[in-house]
Amino acid sequence: MKISIVVTQEEHFKFAQEICDTIESSALLRGTGIAKRTPEYIQKKMSNGDAMIALADGKFAGFCYIESWQHGKFVAHSGLIVHPDYRSLGLAKKIKSKVFDYSLKRFPDAKIFGITTGLAVMKINSELGYKPVPFSELTTDPSFWAGCKTCTNYQILQSKENKMCLCTGMLYDPKEKQKTPPRHPFNEAVLSRLKKIKQALFLNKLLSFIFLFKI
């Protein structure tokens, strides 16, 4: 099976709805929050050349798009998804790597960042040279954070004034001298514990709030 990963064009508009459905269903299966996107938004990214799609014999196999913030100072990769029929092939890493290289060419001075609850994405990011950072090191553009409104965890983000959520922030700064292997090797056990600690802290605060409210 030959899978090609290419920069999107208008001919790929027909896959927009399937991409949105696959992103949403994947989030539901994982039990995680996600910022929803419309087919129209995905098509806009496609027509601007701000996305890459993986195709297997003409069928949708995977996708990821690029967003820039603060006049190109920051760049984020969003909507990384692999169709269920093509998982366990290492395709997510291939797509992410392609989008990463593409971003470096288009925005050579931009800091590349992402927020995610997925350990698989964290691992890929770490291998590319990202490091975990507090949200304060990410973009302050309100448009970016507004994109989280459809996420089930948005109230948590608001309560923390966009400084913390269940997601982990990760950042690649092209001005930092990169080493091989990456300076920040991925430790799945540590990040998994961090995620559980975050969830426990937020749950305890929520229960305390409910208790006080009832009183």
Automatic annotation (TrEMBL):
SUPFAM superfamilies from the UniProt entry: Acyl-CoA N-acyltransferases (Nat) (SSF55729)
Entries under Pfam families matching the protein: Acetyltransf_1 (PF00583)
Name this polypeptide is given: GNAT family N-acetyltransferase
Transmembrane parts of this sequence: none
Domain N-acetyltransferase: 11-151
CDD domains cross-referenced by the UniProt entry: NAT_SF (cd04301)
